[in-house]
Amino acid sequence: MRTPGVVHHGTLRRRAAYRRALRTAGELLVTVGAVLLLLVVHQLWWTNRQAREGAERRVEALEREWRRPAPDVTAAPDPGEDRPQGAGAGAGTARADPGGRTGTARRSPGEQPRRSPGERPRGSDAYAVLTVPRLSLRVPVAEGIGKRDVLDRGYAGHYPRTAQPGRPGNFALAGHRNTHGEPFRHLDRLKRGDTVEVETRTAAYVYAVDRTLPQTAARDVGVVRPVPRSAVHPSYGYSEPGYYLTLTTCTPEYTSKYRLVVWGRLRSVRPR
Length: 272
Prior knowledge:
8-stranded mixed beta barrel, 24% strand
């Protein structure tokens, strides 16, 4: 007859410890997976919802502010302003005012103080509205390209030291392609001839999409120069002064390795 095997207490303890370790590891993996899922949901859904709602409210606030009668303030002409040539009817009558006129009138909560026509926006002020019909896009334009105070709010950010809308040179904007409202998510869908409108208190500037640079280095500063031309791909860009619009965003999607660039030219100016 075979003698039944004897299992020592040490062996039982090792098996129990092994089972506990497996159970603990499984619980940790489930917890980590749940946390990662929550982070993905937060980045891809919640930040988009928050940013889009905030951007919509800011657009509405700007429009309410612009509908209010401007105070009777005599402002000196802006010596740096030139009139666009060949930009359509009314091109010589509209001022490229980034934020309006100065005044002491009371303003609603969240509205920006009014500025004189020649004054540049301050800080991360939202002072214009960008509309792209093909993309069903309508978002505020704010000064600067900082993530926390501009881009992560779902705004289009104006590159400092580039031209203002309707002015000679290059009016250059940046926007997120993914998360935080992702206003430039489908920038690659724009085609030659598509319109892009930039509204300020005093005028609406209509640009027509002209050229696209599908991919360039993140540090390709040539694309936002007054006469935009890629320093990495010199065959993309322009060689003569003009009234340009530049839209930039990250590419490929969900990365920030390269930049996608869309250029346009000023087509017309419509006084408000």
